[in-house]
Amino acid sequence: MEKRGKKEYRDSSIYIKGGVLIILIILLAVSIYFYFPKDCKNDEACYAKYAQTCSKAKVGTYKEGNLFNYEIKGKQSGNCIFSVKLEKMKEGSNQQLVELLEGRQMLCQMPLDKFNEKPLLEIKDTTDYCSGPLKEAMLQLTIERLYSVIISNLGNITAELRKSV
Known about the structure:
Layout: H1 2-35, E1 38-39, H2 44-52, E2 57-63, E3 66-76, E4 79-88, H3 95-101, E5 105-111, H4 114-117, E6 130-131, H5 133-164
Parallel strand pairs: 1-2
Antiparallel strand pairs: 2-3, 3-4, 4-5, 5-6
């Protein structure tokens, strides 16, 4: 009789351990599902669907021949948090531009109501809501280009000023 009790105890112990293991596996799978973003690869429609509700997702997309990676991180204080990374500049790009921009990223906080106007990838003023190395590099490039335009036209401006005085 004593042997039978021990065997039943061992059998029930195996079932309990198996049940706990199955529950842990299910919890792990659910955690992974909610923690990691949906990888839309290069499917902009998939990404747009997730972006409408600011759900975690990522996509690689080409704009003007340059490869950008967008990743939605989630919601915070009425904003949608996402990152934009310039992965690869198009072939034939100026080497100085490649060094300045390629591999840089910016973090963005855009109001959720902006997503009702247009899909995220079509919003033109995205950088107004961003900060980080990519935005800083883009601003630096803009300033350098404006400076060169001003310097190249400085002679004409000076001549016009002399005429008016």
